[in-house]
Amino acid sequence: MPLDGVSGYSDNLASLGEESFSKETQRMSDRSANLRPNSSKAVIEFRNVSYRASNQSVLQDMNLTVDGGETLVLLGRSGSGKTTSLKLINRLLQQNSGDVLVEGKSTTEWDLIRLRRRIGYVIQEAGLFPHYTIAKNVGLLLKIEKKSKAEIRKRTEEMLRMVDLDPVQFADRYPYQLSGGQRQRVGVARALASDPPMLLMDEPFGALDPLSRSELQQQFLRMREQLHKTIILVTHDVREALLLGTRIGLMESGKLLGTYTPEEFRSSPDPSVRSYLDAFGLSNTQDETGKTR
Amino acid sequence: MNYIFAHPSEIANSALLHMWMVALAMLLAIVIGIPLGILMTRYRRLRPAILGSANIIQTIPSLALFGFLLPAPWLGERAYRIAIVTLALYALLPIVRNTFQGITGVDPAVREAAEGMGLTRRQLLFQVELPLAAGVIMAGVRTATVISVGVATIAAAIGAGGLGEFIFRGLAMVNNQLILAGALPAAALALGSDLILGWIQGRLTPPHA
Question: Smallest Cβ distance to A131: which of B109, B117, B131?
Fold first, then answer.
């Protein structure tokens, strides 16, 4: 990785931060994230973030802290601001007020390209480059970072195998020759090829048939075991949120209502949460996992 | 047809000169037009100015444009220079327009993925936008070339030579054979370049479902 020097910035910019060697995670108090004493531990942090698009408020006063290694799922209906939140992190969009910190440093102070290369990005329908083979899609960033051919090839094959695609069979195909599920796998392989510590996923499994979706979700869980990335995943599917998230952030009309562990989410009395669970037929608390129904 | 068969080398020479003028003009138009098209995608404010200028050039009758450039320094010294510049000016509109459309036509999801993964502007352009727009850009070059082969015959009016020579001579002498000796090879050139460039365009168009 050519980006080693970056983490050194984190300390002085997490303005309220004190060094803390505690490994405990503080997960419950996100609403007061900006007052937390050891915010330097947070990998991604929203501080009073608002975003407007053509005078329409899309995101209002969002506070959120994502710690290293967690999978935070942003759950909400279309237009609730979840995709916007995601794009603020890799600065595809820029907030009108407040601050988004990545590794303790405001995204506005990051070198844009270095910031994005530290963050893998997976979108719905994958957005693969149609003119490149699968291998070239996965290896593009490595090529740009001037890795050797042998290294690119090794890494590409490794990534394809990780997402259960046989390199021999798929490396030389073009995206249009693949199924939606296969394309999405390639999208994940591409995002992880340069081994970024963070991963943003925008409805990565949204456009897939239920069977492929379930396969990819299981694969996601297996992959997460191996890789220890900090992941933010956007979805409108409660089951997916409960299955994949270590924490769930519920969003509604531009506001983050709160964050919950899957257990908390299932048992929450909050009417917004209940209505979501009801809509997916998950309000029955006897259902332990939410994924086998 | 008798004239054509009686003077094959004369016609071949004119056809070569014709092709040479068109080819140089296309090269010039590509070198100017593609960057202009890219510029339009980057700077919204420039769009009306660039597209407007290219449009206005198209509305000037070609004979008049050849004439306008006659007094220009250096250019005016050789008729073929004027011919090449004029043809290039005419070719600008389709090339600029198609470059712009080709790039703006790139799937927004693909562009978002490329930006999100941290490609620089330049990398985005050369790795993603231009390769994906290549087919559309080539279609513009193809249109421009076919038009130029036709317009180039008029360049004979200012003494630039080429296949138009026969046409103008034939018109003056009311000799249909002479007119055809210029018109038929010119038509063949237009068709031939259309076929070849069409093939290249097909090769440059990225495969998709």
Answer: B131
CB contact under 8 A, B117 and A113: no
For residue A36, the SS3 value is coil
Distance in angstroms (rounded) separating the CA atoms of residues B134 and B130: 6
Q: What is the mean pLDDT of residues A277-293?
A: 62
Q: Please check whether residue A105 is in contact with residue A40, taking contact to mean a CB–CB distance below 8 angstroms.
A: no
Cα separation values, B97 from A286, B54, B55, B104, B190, Å: 62, 9, 10, 11, 21
Predicted confidence at residue A226, as pLDDT, reads: 87
A129 touches chain B (CB under 8 A): yes
pLDDT digits (tens, 9 = 90+) for A188-234: 999 999 999 999 999 999 888 889 899 999 999 999 988 889 999 99
pLDDT at B135: 95
Tell me, yes or no, if A127 comes closer than 8 A to chain B by beta carbon: yes
Chain B hits for A123, CB-CB cut-off 8 Å, are 109, 112-113, 116
Dihedral Cα B14, B27, B141, B20, nearest 10 deg = 10
DSSP B175: -
- Residues from chain A that touch B119, judged by Cβ atoms under 8 A, are 113, 144
User: Which phi and psi angles does B168 have, rounded to 5°?
Assistant: -65, -40
**Distant-in-sequence, close-in-space partners of B198: CB < 8 Å, separation ≥ 6:** B142
Local confidence band at B208 (pLDDT 50, 70, 90 cut-offs):
low
Predicted-assembly ipTM surpassing the 0.85 threshold: no
